[in-house]
Specification:
28% of the residues lie in helices and 24% in strands. By secondary structure, it is an alpha+beta fold. Strand 4 and strand 5 form a beta hairpin.
Length: 216
């Protein structure tokens, strides 16, 4: 905290970690103790992300990042957080029923095809995704290989306003190219071209687009 107060904003790698105890790498976060400590402090409201250098976060004392606002009781804050969450979702699941926020736009959505991260807010709530589209999804990287139905890191396929399938795509390090291991379309969905979406994904990760795509 003293380093941030004196020198911030700073990258985690620039923070001195000589006082942290040396331990064996953790199975989840390896030996990134400084990063873990900063994330804990962020949850406590003591530090905040002040910007980025590439993909790296710049950390600073929270008081220099967050604006000065009136302090409100926690119960009131909880209600405000929930209201904002519902507004950002647009549609949420509560007690088995879908609810729509009154401010959500009902304008038509284009048919652009893209791939969703397993952690995208659109499908992060698995029960909500299933209620909206009948789309059952789980990240199978934590499932033993013999029990996987699809693949290690399968991405949902979004077309317009519907999740229409899933794709198992991986980056082959030796050739620095994307490889599509499989494509699965939802029942009743007519397959569409995935080439534009694969080209965008390849450009984003700095790899060569796949030369062939399974039809599913």
């Amino acid at each position: 905290m003293r380093e941030l107060e004196r020198n911030g904003p700073m990258l985690s790698r620039d923070l001195k970690a000589d006082l942290l105890p040396s331990t064996e790498p953790h199975r989840w976060w390896g030996n990134r103790q400084v990063r873990l400590m900063l994330e804990v402090l962020q949850q406590r409201g003591e530090v905040a992300v002040a910007g980025r250098v590439g993909k790296q976060r710049l950390w600073d004392v929270a008081d220099r990042v967050y604006p000065q606002v009136e302090t409100i009781p926690w119960r009131e804050a909880e209600r405000e957080i929930e209201a904002r969450r519902r507004r950002s979702l647009g549609v949420w699941l509560e007690r088995g029923k879908l609810h729509v926020h009154p401010d959500v736009s009902d304008e038509p959505v284009g048919n652009r095809v893209t791939f969703l991260s397993p952690f995208d807010r659109l499908i992060h709530d698995r029960a909500r995704a299933h209620a909206l589209w009948g789309f059952f999804y789980r990240l199978e990287m934590y499932v033993p290989k013999a029990k996987r139905r699809y693949g290690y890191y399968v991405l949902p396929i979004l077309r317009g306003e519907r999740v229409v399938g899933r794709i198992d795509v991986a980056r082959e390090k030796a050739a620095n190219a994307l490889v599509v291991n499989g494509v699965w379309w939802e029942d009743g969905v007519r397959p569409v071209s995935l080439e534009p979406a694969l080209k965008r994904l390849a450009a984003w990760v700095g790899a060569t687009p796949p030369t062939s795509v399974p039809t599913g």
